[in-house]
């Protein structure tokens, strides 16, 4: 299964991000969406699971939850915006991965057999960080994460 992972779009869906996410069977948006049109446009590529970020305060965002669980190829992925708000033990809860955003810094880290994955920021450039998205491929139950740099 191919999962596209995006975060911190802040109302901008770049053509490079659309191209990078093509072929995804599911897209996870880890918050700070910025505009409902972003989710509409992502749904033209694949089904979307999205969470509310700290900037998602407009009326359209009220239906977004702070956390979501995505079931993918018999693996459970926990999605939230700010990793500092993680209030559970993902391994004990049976999650294969924790997907998050907020920092704008792409990160792939394994802790106690659980993938902690931040795709970075796909929206307006922040600080001096590259603009990125992520992909996770699940093959025979194994998670294979990747960061895709859109702009340096």
SSE blueprint and pairings:
Elements: E1 2-6, H1 15-21, E2 26-29, H2 36-43, E3 48-50, E4 67-72, E5 75-80, E6 97-99, E7 107-111, E8 114-118, E9 131-139, E10 142-151
Parallel strand pairs: 1-2, 2-3, 5-6, 6-8
Antiparallel strand pairs: 1-9, 4-5, 7-8, 9-10
Please mark out the parts with pLDDT under 50 across 5 or more consecutive residues, or reply none: none
| Number of E strands | 10
Q: Could you give the distance between the termini?
A: 28 Å
- The first-level CATH class is given as Alpha Beta
CATH superfamily: Metallo-dependent phosphatases
Helix content: under 10%
Task: Give the C-alpha Rg.
Answer: 14 Å
Q: Could you spell the SSE succession in H and E letters?
A: EHEHEEEEEEEE
How many separate helices?
Answer: 2
Which structural class do you get from the secondary structure elements?
A: mainly beta
User: What fold name stands as the CATH topology?
Assistant: Purple Acid Phosphatase, chain A, domain 2
Side-by-side strand order of the widest sheet: 3-2-1-9-10
Main sheet specs: 5 strands, mixed
What's the number of domains?
1
CATH architecture: 4-Layer Sandwich
């Amino acid at each position: 299964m191919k999962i596209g992972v995006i975060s911190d779009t802040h109302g901008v869906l770049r053509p490079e991000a659309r191209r990078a996410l093509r072929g995804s069977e599911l897209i996870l948006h880890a918050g700070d969406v910025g505009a409902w049109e972003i989710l509409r446009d992502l749904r033209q590529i694949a089904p979307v699971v999205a969470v509310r970020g700290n900037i998602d305060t407009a009326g359209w965002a009220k239906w977004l939850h702070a956390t979501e669980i995505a079931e993918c190829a018999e693996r459970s992925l926990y999605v939230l915006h700010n990793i500092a708000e993680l209030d559970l033990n993902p391994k004990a809860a049976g999650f294969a991965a924790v997907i998050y955003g907020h920092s704008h810094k792409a990160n792939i880290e394994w802790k106690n057999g659980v993938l902690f994955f931040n795709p970075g920021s796909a929206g307006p450039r922040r600080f001096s960080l590259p603009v990125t998205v992520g992909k996770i491929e699940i093959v025979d139950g194994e998670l294979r994460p990747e960061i895709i740099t859109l702009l340096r």
